Amino acid sequence: MSRINLVSTEQANEQQQALYSAIEQKLGVVPNFLKVFANSPTALQAFLGLHTIASEGALDGKTKERIALGLAEQNACQYCVSAHTAIGKKAGLTGDEMLANRAGDSQDAKASVAVKFARSLAENSGEVSTAELLEIRNVGFNDAEIVEIITHVGMNVLTNILAKASRVEIDFPKVELKQAS
User: Fold this and answer.
1) Quick check: 88 and 175 in contact, CB under 8 A?
2) Same domain, 100 and 126
3) Same structural domain, 162 and 103
4) Is 0.85 surpassed by the pTM of this model?
5) Section 25-29 average pLDDT
6) Same domain, 79 and 39
7) What are the pLDDT digits (tens) for 38-66?
8) In this predicted structure, what is the pLDDT of residue 181?
């Protein structure tokens, strides 16, 4: 049971209803973690704005999901591992690829560097080395894409924290976390 209220459709005020309607149009459902966010319509609106901006960038959908999986596992967020496994499948990631992502790697050489860079950003609170920046540039990421990776790290860490703090009920096919390191 969630430790923070999930705002149901029946409980939602006019502003929350409008946000839910926009979410349902895009996703078909309102996931539980967004119902937690809805306790503060301002926070939900800010998250949706960030998510929209991040989804329109230069990074491809597979790379975004690889990063999300790598961070969710690193941060031991079962809700997010479960959600991004379902989303990753829809984006075209294989089971083996998603396991590699969760371990901080990828079967794709360029994506591998992105996942490792993202996890380093999260682990080191942004204090990445010059060598890490050179490596990500050397595999073909430009500064705009690097900023997008940083944005995705922030967004995913936010959702990991929200899901863990609230202990929101998983409303995706449940995926068990690996052993926490």
Assistant:
1) no
2) yes
3) yes
4) yes
5) 91
6) no
7) 999 999 999 999 998 888 999 999 999 99
8) 44
**Amino acid identity at 41:** P
Of the candidates 102, 150, 106, 155, the residue with the CA atom closest to the CA atom of residue 124: 150
Amino acid identity of 116? K
- The first and second tokens of residue 50, run together, are 């960030």
Q: What are phi and psi of 41, to 5 degrees?
A: -55, -30
Which contacts of 34-42 are long-range, i.e. CB under 8 A and separated by 24 or more positions?
A: 35/6, 35/7, 35/8, 35/168, 36/2, 36/4, 36/5, 36/6, 36/7, 36/162, 36/163, 36/166, 36/168, 37/162, 38/6, 38/7, 38/12, 39/4, 39/5, 39/7, 41/13, 41/15, 41/16
Are the C-beta atoms of 130 and 117 separated by less than 8 Å? no
d(Cα 44, Cα 48) in Å, to the nearest integer?
Answer: 6
